[in-house]
Automatic annotation (TrEMBL):
Top EC class, one word: transferase
InterPro entries xrefs: 2CSK_N, HAMP_dom, HATPase_C_sf, HATPase_dom, His_kinase_dom, HisK_dim/P_dom, HisK_dim/P_sf, Sig_transdc_His_kin-like_C
Keyword Membrane found: yes
Identification of the protein by name: histidine kinase
Membrane-spanning parts: 153-176
GO molecular function, one term: phosphorelay sensor kinase activity
Keyword Kinase annotated: yes
Database matches in Gene3D superfamilies: 1.10.287.130, Histidine kinase-like ATPase, C-terminal domain
Organism: Accumulibacter regalis
E.C. designation(s): 2.7.13.3
Domain Histidine kinase: 237-457
């Protein structure tokens, strides 16, 4: 607050000086005006010639002043001195008299004998004569009284500021210190907390001004506590899930060390390799889930992309695995379907859906991937002919490490959790339902995983009227 105050104070002094001079000049200008009017009443015109009839004692009285010097003179139209001081300067009018100066007392600042002078002057015209016949009356006064009065006004205004402004600074400093004391106490309470303490701040002694800020801070702490709890649960679940394959690997390694038969040894090594694959898959799924959560926190930008083309490219990479399992992997083209998405995360999501479908579909079954455009929405579907799913499990399967009881496939329980995280990042809806589609004479079996996106439509050309669009989807 001191910096702008120190900047404004000199400007305030300059304005005070200007207005003080204006105020101080006003009464003395009125006095000069009266002197000019008094002199003008003593001027008369006889046969077109001006005559001045002011007694000598009156002239002495006109010039009398205890502080300033007063000068006056009368000049005719030719500039000849009628009476008064010869060297008193006259106004300059090279093109003649302006109309506004006819009979009007005017003022100007000038200099006479090295002294600043305030001059009042009047062009007095002969009644009924032409505008070319006039007498110039000038009364000038030095400015000492004006300067003294202006200095008194400035002193009366400026001097109290030297007391008031420091006092105001002290009072403001004290007021701010007292006003910020609750904030200081709140800061100390926060700094005194342990690193792991995410409990809310008690609102009992918080001032009303800080209550909204404290409530917002408590809300942030609650969200942080929720995230920390979720991370702890995730770490505990991951540790539990990792313990099983590691225990199996250890057991198989111990058995392999005891075997001397080459056939049994190769069998144990195959079991170890299978356990390593399961553990590696679990680690990959955990890392994928962590990346999806981190992407949601960082709010990565979503760009327009063709989800149908992306689906086709991914399905092509799964053909070899499908052939190894003797599963008919199909793709149904839908043409260009634009959505806003992150290609890396969508690829991870589709890979998890295909992996889940191929894992639980038996040999001889089929898996079909498609994108269906329905009005303002694009529906990505992965359909399989596996064992299906019960309605009560259709939502639970998206929880972390949840496995359907009696499922034969080997999985980590994280694939569909990753799918849900990525779908929510794209503001899409993920669902897994029993497959009700079947050919004639076939019983329905398997599941259909659906991800519903909002379609990204190109802007319509100018001047065109967009057609009505369907806003729902089956």
């Amino acid at each position: 607050m001191l910096a702008p105050l120190l900047f404004v104070w000199p400007i305030s002094i300059a304005f005070t000086h200007y207005f003080a001079n204006s105020v101080a000049s006003f009464p003395y200008d009125q006095s000069l005006r009266e002197h000019v009017a008094a002199v003008s009443r003593q001027v008369s015109f006889v046969d077109g010639q001006p005559h001045f009839a002011l007694p000598g004692i009156a002239q002495v009285f006109l010039r009398s002043d205890e502080i300033d010097n007063v000068y006056f003179h009368l000049l005719d139209v030719d500039g000849s001195l009628i009476v008064g001081d010869t060297e008193l300067p006259v106004p300059r009018h090279p093109q003649g008299l302006p109309r506004s100066e006819h009979g009007e007392v005017l003022f100007r600042d000038d200099e006479y004998r090295g002294q600043a002078l305030r001059v009042a002057y009047l062009y007095l015209f002969e009644p009924g004569a032409s505008a070319a016949r006039w007498v110039l009356i000038e009364v000038g006064e030095t400015t000492e009284k004006r300067s003294q009065l202006a200095n008194k006004i400035i002193a009366s205004v400026i001097l109290p500021q030297f007391v008031i402004i420091p006092l105001a600074v002290v009072l403001v400093w004290f007021g701010l210190s007292q006003g910020l004391r609750p904030l200081t106490r709140l800061r100390d309470r926060i700094q005194a907390r342990r690193e792991a303490d995410l409990s809310p701040i008690a609102l009992r002694r918080v001032p009303e001004e800080l209550r909204p800020l404290t409530e917002a801070f408590n809300s942030m702490l609650a969200r942080m506590q929720h995230n920390v709890d979720a991370q702890r649960r995730f770490i505990a679940d991951a540790a539990h899930q990792m313990r099983t394959p590691l225990t199996g690997l250890k057991t198989q390694a111990q058995l392999a060390m005891r075997e001397s038969d080459p056939g049994e040894l190769r069998h144990a090594l195959r079991q170890i390799l299978s356990g390593v694959d399961r553990a590696s898959h679990l680690v990959d799924q955990m890392l994928a889930l962590a990346r999806a959560e981190a992407s949601g926190d960082a709010q990565q930008p979503l760009l327009p992309l063709d989800v149908d083309q992306l689906l086709r490219e991914i399905v092509e990479t799964w053909v070899v695995r499908a052939l190894d399992k003797r599963i008919d992997l199909g793709y149904e083209a839908a043409g260009a379907v634009l959505i806003e998405g992150n290609a890396f995360l969508l690829r991870e999501m589709i890979n998890n859906l295909l992996d889940n479908a191929l894992r639980y579909t038996p040999a001889g079954g089929r898996v079909t991937a498609r994108v269906v455009a329905q009005g303002d929405f694009a529906v990505l579907e992965i359909e399989d002919s596996g064992p299906g799913i019960a309605d009560e499990d259709s939502q639970k399967v998206f929880d972390r490490f949840y496995r359907v009881e009696g499922a034969d496939g080997e999985g980590s329980g994280l694939g569909l959790a990753i799918v849900r995280e990525i779908a929510e990042l794209h503001q899409a809806a993920a669902s897994l339902r029993p497959n009700t589609r079947h050919a004639d004479g076939e019983e329905p079996s398997g599941c259909i995983a659906r991800i519903v996106f909002r379609v990204q439509r190109p802007p319509p050309p100018r001047g065109s009227t967009p057609d009505a669009v369907q806003t729902g989807f089956a």
